[in-house]
Design a protein that fits this description.
277 residues; alpha/beta; Rossmann fold; 14 strands; 33% helix
Length: 277
């Protein structure tokens, strides 16, 4: 548990800061402004690429760092990319080889943007996407009829790739097979139906560690809040790890404390708590 006044607060977005309808509440927005005013370095830590970050988040004055694509990229407050952890060409090719017999719905992240399978773009709900996120999917992505070809062509410049699969037994079995084979990759999930692949050095926890080194902030003086498996390592690493009530089992197990859900302004409550330190 954190003992000193928190100096850095890393916040996941979807399912944590943002409500289930993909909006930022005025209560949470005001709390983030209060944290910044109290000289807390507020850091966005999202699985989203930079190009799909919400504008009302990026517009918050005093937001100096954005962790994007699950830690594969770090941007400064002006939108300049200051760190990259790209997938190796070897790992990309091996991933394509191991999955060649499966008709998967792929997405690829590079240069702050997303390209997705046209089938997902045209009907995301049928692949498990919440209706509230359909507009976000279509406004934030390009699409391709040949995602495997797209991934191959960009094999030297990928931040990350992921596939979407709502068949839980198949998804879990394939993920276990890939984890055994692809030891150079960090494999995680930001949502139940997604399996996400990045370089081993790319994670939210590693990105937070890099920012702390740049700002000379001890990890013991940090707070992190999230809701999904891809947040768990960051919560374990932070001086105080907080999970929202709607978090995954892995994320909840990694947390030092649990706050209200994303729909009940849990991040506001966390900020109120840490500002009392």
């Amino acid at each position: 548990m954190i003992k000193n006044k928190p100096r850095l607060l890393a916040l996941d977005l979807d399912g944590t800061v943002l409500r289930s309808n993909n909006t930022l509440s005025q209560e949470v927005k005001a709390a983030i402004h209060r944290a910044v005013a109290h000289n807390v370095e507020v850091v966005v830590a999202s699985g989203r690429p930079y190009g799909s970050m919400p504008r009302d988040i990026l517009a918050i004055e005093g937001l100096n760092y954005v962790i994007a694509s699950n830690g594969a990229a770090i941007y400064d407050g002006r939108g300049n990319r200051i760190h990259s952890s790209l997938m190796s060409e070897r790992d990309v090719l091996r991933l394509l080889e191991l999955t060649k017999d499966y008709d998967l719905i792929w997405e690829a992240f590079l240069e702050g943007e997303i390209c997705t399978d046209r089938r997902y773009y045209e009907d995301p709900v049928s692949f498990g996407c919440s209706a509230a996120y359909v507009e976000y999917v279509r406004s934030s992505r390009g699409c391709s009829d040949d995602m495997r070809g797209y991934i191959y062509r960009h094999r030297q410049s990928l931040d990350s790739v992921e596939f979407v699969c709502s068949d839980a037994p198949f998804r879990q079995a394939l993920r276990a097979e890939l984890e055994a084979e692809l030891t150079g990759l960090y494999i995680t999930s930001s949502s139940a139906d997604f399996v996400e692949f990045m370089d081993k050095s790319a994670s939210k926890s590693n990105a937070m560690r890099r920012i702390c080194a740049m700002e000379n902030i001890p990890l013991t003086d940090t707070v992190a809040c999230g809701n999904a498996d891809n947040d768990a390592d960051m919560l374990r690493q932070a001086g105080l790890g907080a999970a929202v009530q709607n978090a995954s089992e892995l994320c909840l197990a990694a947390a030092d404390m649990v706050v209200a859900s994303n729909d009940d302004h849990g991040v506001r409550d966390l900020i109120n708590f840490i500002l009392q330190k």
